[in-house]
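hey so i finally got around to running the thing on that chain from the lab meeting. sorry it took forever, my laptop kept dying and i had to restart like 3 times. anyway pasting the input first so we r on the same page abt which one it is
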Amino acid sequence: MNAIGLPQILVVSTALFFIGVYGFLTRRNMISMLMSIELILNSVNINFIAFNKYLFPGKLDGLFFTVIIITIAASEAAVAIAIIINLYRKYKSIDVEDANSMRF
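ok and heres what got predicted. didnt touch it at all, straight out
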């Protein structure tokens, strides 16, 4: 039986990270950019869990960092969605290029 090792997990995490970076840099919609940031944070969580499991199996440091990052990501998403909703109500658009021409 083939077990999934650290290199395979790191490949998946790296792919998620670069998909998130690509999505953040190429999308114009604020919701898509927020989802890309969440992908980046999830790839970091996968790294923490993988390194914790394979390098320090008796400790829970990676798990604690992951819980902290998940909490911060949830807070960040709530605040970002509130900001996006307010921008949409005021300017009727959530396009980033439209935000450049908005006058606050």
